[in-house]
Design brief:
heterodimer; A: 785 residues; alpha+beta; 11-stranded mixed β-sheet; 6-stranded mixed β-barrel; 23 helices; 21 strands; 51% helix; B: 252 residues; alpha/beta; Rossmann fold; 4-stranded antiparallel β-sheet; 27% strand
Chain lengths: 785, 252
Amino acid sequence: MFLRILKNDLRRKKTMNIILLLFVILSSMFASSSVSNISAVMRGTDSYFDKAGMSDAFILTLSETDCDTVSKNLDNCKGVDSYQREDVLMLMSDNFRQDGNKLVDFTNAALVQCGADTKMNIFDDSNEKIKNVREGECYISGTFAERADLEVGERFDIKVGDNTWTFTFAGHAKDALFGSEFINNPRFLLSSADYEKMVPECQDSRGAVFYIETDDADTVLAEAAEGAKIQFSGPRSMIKTSYIMNMIVAALLLVVSVGLIVVSFIVLRFTIGFTIAEEFREIGVMKAIGLKTRSIRGLYLVKYTGIAVLGAVLGFFAGIPFGRMLLDSAASSMVLGGDNTVLISALSSAAVVAAIIAFSWRSTKKIKKLSPVDAVRSGQTGERFKKRGILKLGSSRLGTTSFMALNDVFSAKKQFGIICAVFTVCILLVTVLANTANFLSSEKMLPFMALTESDVYINDTSECMDIIGAVKTPDEAIEEVEQKIRDAGYDADVSVELWYKYTVAFGDKSVSVPMIQNRRTKTEDYSYEQGTAPQYTNEIALSLPVLEKLGAKVGDTVTLAIGGEDKEFIVTASYQSMNNLGESGRFHQDYETDDRGISTAFAFQADFKDDPDAEEIDNRVEKLKDAFETDNVFNSADYAKDCSGAADTISAVKYLVLVIDIILAAMIAVLMERSFISKEKSEIALLKAMGFKSRSVIFQHTLRFVFVCIAAAVFAAVLCIPLTKLTMDPIFSIMGLVSGIEFKIDAAEVFFICPMIMLGVTALAVFLTSLYTASVKASDTADIE
Amino acid sequence: MNTVLDVKDLCKTYIVNKRQNNVLRNVSFSVDEGEMIAVMGPSGSGKSTLLYTVSGMDAMTAGKVEFCGSDISKMSQNELSQLRLDDMGFVFQQMYMMKNLSVLDNIILPACKSKKVSESRSQTADRGRSLMRKLGISEVADNDINEVSGGQLQRAAICRAMINEPRMLFADEPTGALNRSSSEEVMDELCRLNDDGTTVMLVTHDARVAAKCTRVLFIVDGNIKGEYNIDRNKSPRDRERDLNNWLLEMGW
């Protein structure tokens, strides 16, 4: 009999059982994919670096002389356990052509090297190590190929002087050292034959990467830099931090994953409670015919376990591609995900089964208390004095249908409250991402890059390289840029942020940091956290992480090793910036720096003298792109976006999450509405018998979800900013923004468009589902139990 | 007297498992204004189907049903809904109520939806309370529907059916789920409404209930087998006895 009851139950309550099964599939899918992704993200860079075989510290030098100096320094440095030198060719964007044109503009130097000789592991898109590169083929790391719209199989040329070599793009390479958004020096991995052919023709472009094993990276890097011009250096920890943008995206994925798990479990708990509550009549009947509580409880547990196992298995398989899709969208340039992904996913799905059994066990506890009388009263004891509705139709100004919808929501606070909470989470997942992406692509970010806001930013690679190579003085380069702008028909003041790499010491501690100077702005133009801007040439500002590393504070005197001399500077201010992942300093504009020490020049900043409006600036940006023959001319917001590098990725994740939200909201709305219809069939029939038209019933059902969605939008609006700060401030603080940031809130997007999309999708889903109420006839009042 | 309901050759057929089930076969009768007509018959004879079909709640297969001169078979679902809302009232065996509304709100719900009477919400609520007072349940106006007895709930259902002052009230075994005293109370209310001019058509198994009506239709296998006029001048006991005798003749 037990099996017969179970069989009949599954057949007769097909709709509710299918709804439950779908929710279990959703839960299992979200849980299995999210938990394995969380695990992958948590191990994140460490796991990636271990796989890549990253060393403790790195140095990149541009000239052969500097390479040799660094080699000698490292040979004599006591702190070095071992080091490896990897010879590379350093080429600029002008060297990469396709059909005679420049392939793409990029500011960082590209490393061209033999794929077989790399001292660390570099991976392809399938996360397999790139061991050999075929002759004529080339793997490219970083965002180069993406920016150049280069498809696998396409051909391009590398042109140095009069020599041109043609290569076929073999695929994207994941490079742990130079592949992050912050560093982003593309590596071109060639076959040894091709590389050997190029080397003799590129003697002026030779450079080297040093991979150093040491326990004292900071000291070793400072000593290795003695007498050499270092293009880039840093310890493993800094490289790790350079993935912060990727990790921001991964962390957002983590937030999304946790959100999805919470949503799925809430909905699951609700659905189980809801379906068991529907069974009171039958439980009463079973008790009346003499079935013991244990048997009845067992019946439901067997049923829910069966549904849970089936749903969890289906969800597990659906979760594998879903999880991979999420992870790929979040960190396409990294190798995330461990070897135990399947096991973790399977355990997560098993946890879903366990949770369902636990929920069922808890929900079926009530069976003990039910008596045969409940068969008559459908689970109502008649002793409930708590009011269901709090609204009064007689005193309401709402239309009847609107009143009924609102009253239903207030009468079933728990059910609709859960739906509201789920929708709130869904909206927040998108809006937190939107706030972050908007901040990273707004001019509000510029002060956090230790930049002043200008009308236009011009990345003129050749001028920058001329400054770095001491071919031109910064003033000469600036004057040339000003002239080009004048030739384009505009008059502008131009300046450029120059970076020098010096070792700053305080007491027995020293840190090698980039010192920044802009000779044509004033130190007062920048934002500071403590103290006042440097007023004299012997004063500097240091970023908070540098001060923390040195154990110094504003007012202390620190020593900088400049040109073989130790020079003392008073720290007059501290600031926070994302430059060099939070570690930098600023000279007074009048401090006489040695142009030969310039390691990096930022974009040329131009401020038009006629103070044009934003629209005119955008027009001028387009004209200056032609004048400078580059796409790297930006307005302030676009430049911020270009600097952060992650805004587009976060936007892409935002849209992905929005799509997931839409699907989730639609599914929840459809499944909930379908279960409501099933539960409220008698009331629908009654309304129709009383003369309510089908459209009124459909409107009432749709309106309930609209009210819930509006409430969710309000809650989400209230929580949006605090939650963004709560989740994102700790992440940005790792990048050096330790004092928190003011996010850019796009009110239209966050408070209107996102909620309206959710509202529209939900309303449409419920509307379409509620059309089913048309099949409930007035005469069904005669057939309803 | 005006004819409120005129039924001619009404047929209703269900197809169950590809088998045709003729529930109503060429049923014809009429109901005049002010009448209180009972439909009796054994289980499965088609009583409830007849009630639902003539009230437009269920579609007929063939025949014609005129309600106050309008052919309901030609009406759209929306027109039928409007007709039920404004001109018909319904009382069911189970006291179906909207769970989330108080007793009073359940009663005034059709009036709030209908545009038949132009009045404010508070006036509607006052009218609802007045009806409740009339039926002796005014003390439970603000109660939740779970807090009142079955008899009170059925009287509330009658109030709801009457709130739009319908031309005709349909009741499907209105006392079927009630105990004897509640049953008496409910029938007294229906009779009082009928005395006030409301036409009533009810389905019942109970001869004592039917004896309070003016006419009884006896239906067997979808056909009206007989019709019995009750003399309301006789005492209730005599009416019930005469009716029982007639039902015996009909094979009850």
